[in-house]
Specification:
mainly beta; Porin; eight-stranded antiparallel β-barrel; three-stranded antiparallel β-sheet
Length: 253
């Protein structure tokens, strides 16, 4: 008799209730940017147009190195400091751009991963700080070595008389600015368990350009090659692979 009523109790139970999804109109996120030519931080302010499209403003502050930068050390001194031989300027970029985000696969009601395609275009400002090094000199009387802090000069400074890098903060008052532009394309994977919190990883490629065109009309109006290196041909474009990681400061409302 008991077995007869078991199916009745089982099927009379209410189905599991799922939380209704809310379309949030605004988002903000901050995180770390790691790319193949440096690292930095980034942030975005996002507006939802509808259930599929979003648009946003973004700001990146990232370091940028030349692909042929190689760290070295003066092996004649055990306590010498490492430096990048031939590096003329330390460079970091301030990017400001406008982007669109297309939601390809939204989260189901019970959680999961939202996958989106991302595209950005904007202005890239390159800040160039001269590199200062500690240079070795020999005292004519005592024949002992001492060091002087000098701005890197590829003519006078060689691996034999460079003792190592000087303070990174030396030369900030001589910083120069160069204007360029950038493009970025990638895919975003948002996996937070809470609808109003953002936890995401974005991966893609970015292209920073500081000289566009070589004709008489454009000339150097949109910049020139970034003078990162002194003994290697400098580049006008920088292609890098990037990952944005947003784990702590993302919010929807």
């Amino acid at each position: 008799m008991l077995l007869f009523f078991i199916p009745y109790f089982v099927f009379s139970q209410e189905p599991l209730k799922r939380t209704k999804k809310i379309l949030y109109k605004h988002e903000r996120n901050f995180g770390v940017n790691v790319h193949s030519l440096g690292w930095g931080v980034h942030g975005r302010r996002v507006w939802n147009e509808n259930v599929k499209w979003q648009h946003f403003l973004e700001l990146d502050i990232v370091s940028m190195k030349h692909p042929k930068q190689v760290k070295t050390i003066n092996t004649f001194f055990s306590d010498s400091k490492g430096y990048d031989y031939g590096k003329q300027n330390s460079t970091f970029l301030l990017r400001s751009g406008f982007g669109k985000q297309l939601i390809l696969f939204d989260k189901p009601d019970f959680g999961g991963i939202m996958v989106s395609a991302v595209g950005v275009v904007g202005v890239s400002l390159a800040f160039l700080k001269p590199v200062y090094l500690e240079i070795l000199y020999a005292d004519d009387i005592t024949n002992e070595f001492y060091v002087e802090t000098e701005k890197y000069n590829p003519v006078e400074h060689s691996p034999y008389n460079i003792y190592g890098r000087a303070s990174y903060f030396k030369g900030f008052d001589e910083m120069q600015l160069q204007v360029g532009s950038y493009l970025k394309a990638g895919f975003s994977f948002e996996f937070s368990k809470k609808d109003d919190v953002i936890r995401s990883i974005e991966a893609g490629v970015s292209l920073d350009a500081f000289k566009i065109g070589n004709n008489d009309i454009v000339g150097d109006a949109l910049g020139k090659e970034l003078p990162v290196m002194a003994i290697t041909k400098n580049k006008k474009t920088f292609l890098s692979f990037y990952i944005n990681m947003n784990f702590f400061f993302g919010k929807k409302w």
